[in-house]
Amino acid sequence: MYKYAQIPSQMVADSKSMGENNDCTVKALAVALGVPYKLAHRHFELHCGRRKGRGVVSRKVLPQSLKNTPHKVGPYSNEKRVSLARFCREHPVGRFYVAVSGHAIGVVDGVVYDHTDSSRRMVKWAIRVYPKEC
C-alpha cells in the first residue's frame, strides 16, 4: 500500500546548513539506510564522486559503492517500469533507494519519503538495502 511522508525535518535542516541543493540522492540514501544526512552526504562525496550541489547518476555509481552493505538491485529499468504506487504494493516491506526520472526517493516499508506526494511517478531503477543496524 502506498503511503507518503515528508522528508524528516532534521534531514532538511542538515541539507540547508550545508548549503546543499540537488541532493535528492543523498536524502534518498539516508532514508533507505536509516542514517543521518551528513553520513549519506559523505558517502556520496567519497565513494560516488558527488560534488556539492550536483546530482549523480546513482544507477552507475551506487551499487559499487555499497560493497560493505548488503544490497540487491531490482529488476526495474527504462523498459520495465512501474508506478511508485505499484512499487510500494509489490514491496510492502524493506528499505529501498528508488530512482525516478531525474529524481531519487527513499522508501521504507511502503512509505515514500520525498518533498512531494506523487504516486504516479515511474520507477526506473531501485536497489534494496539491508543495513546492519536495521
Brief write-up:
The chain is of the alpha+beta class.
Give the low-confidence spans: none
User: What class, by secondary structure content?
Assistant: alpha+beta
Ends apart, CA distance between termini: 21 Å
Q: Largest sheet, described in full?
A: 7 strands, mixed
Q: Total helix count? A: 5
Helices, strands, pairings?
Blueprint: E1 3-6, H1 9-17, H2 24-33, H3 37-47, H4 58-65, E2 71-73, E3 82-83, H5 84-90, E4 95-100, E5 103-108, E6 111-114, E7 122-129
Written overview of the protein:
By secondary structure, the chain is of the alpha+beta class. The protein has one domain (3-129). The protein is built from five helices and seven strands; from the N terminus they run E-H-H-H-H-E-E-H-E-E-E-E. Strands 1, 2, 3, 4, 5, 6 and 7 form a seven-stranded mixed sheet that branches. The radius of gyration is 13 Å and the shape is globular. The mean pLDDT is 92.
Keywords, separated by commas or semicolons:
single chain, alpha+beta, 7-stranded mixed sheet, 5 helices, 25% strand
